[in-house]
Amino acid sequence: MDYIVSLIQQQDVNWVNATMRLLLSMFLGAAVGIERMKKGQMAGMRTFSLICTGATLAMLVSIYIPQEFMGLKNGDPGRIAAQVVSGIGFLGAGAIIQMKGSVRGLTTAAGIWITAMIGLAVGAGMYIISIITTLLIIFILAIMNRYEHYADMTGESKIIRIKLKYIVTDPSAIKQTFAHYNVHISDLFLKYDYENNSTIINVIVRCKTSTNFIKVFSDIHTDPGVTSITLSNEVNI
């Protein structure tokens, strides 16, 4: 037993401490991934476990090659690890979904990046720091997320389509209505139909999740020229 413990505590890479580091990375990555799955993200437990374990393996290889093939106990363990730091960006980019008016997946992409760093830390033998970092990540993703919703700090993008039976020359009245309800207009598009004497206004807005759009639409509908108000995922221009 003492022999096994001594192997684990060694900085040199051997099969015992390498296995322990890979297992620790697998579980730490899974812990972060489970939280992302609860939020309905595509990158979940398996993805984060693979990323964290793979980063640990990269660090182990970085340490093992100088140790075994060059006879150096203090070689250049950062060489392969540096490629992980830059290369993980491709996975992060794949987790980001860009839609008209909004971007989703930034938090998951950041989680992928820092999970890879945890894997490198485990591979380097920084066990306590890796565990503490994982707990901090879960705190950020879970506890801070609840606080954001409690304090109504979160926002979302929506696309609103308003159809009017006249040619709109000045949309300032609609802008004022949105401003009254603290709905920020990110962009506004106008489509004129001169043949039917009508206007379609597409408004990309940024608002709080608690915004009562029923009241907003009721105020907009006080304009007798408004014939319809809809929500859409794409701008109709």
Sum up the structure in keywords.
about 20% strand; elongated; two-stranded antiparallel sheet; about 240 residues; alpha+beta; 8 helices
What would your notes on this structure say?
The protein contains eight helices and six strands. It is α+β, with helices and mostly antiparallel strands. Strands 4-5-3-6 form a four-stranded antiparallel sheet, covered by helices on one side. Strands 1-2 form a two-stranded antiparallel ribbon. α2 (15-38) packs antiparallel against α3, α2 (15-38) runs antiparallel to α5 (106-123) and α4 packs antiparallel against α5 (106-123). It has helices at 2-9, 15-38, 45-69, 78-95, 106-123, 127-150, 172-180, 213-220; strands spanning 97-99, 102-104, 155-164, 184-193, 198-208, 226-232. The protein is elongated.
Quick recap:
With 237 residues, this protein is α+β, with helices and mostly antiparallel strands. Helices cover 57% and strands 19% of the residues.
Distance between the termini: 72 Å
Give me the oligomer status.
single chain
- Work out the helicity level: 55-70%
- The largest beta-sheet arranges its strands as 4-5-3-6
Write the layout of secondary structure elements.
Blueprint: H1 2-9, H2 15-38, H3 45-69, H4 78-95, E1 97-99, E2 102-104, H5 106-123, H6 127-150, E3 155-164, H7 172-180, E4 184-193, E5 198-208, H8 213-220, E6 226-232
Antiparallel strand pairs: 1-2, 3-5, 3-6, 4-5
Helix pairs in contact: 1-2, 2-3, 2-5, 2-6, 3-4, 3-5, 4-5, 5-6
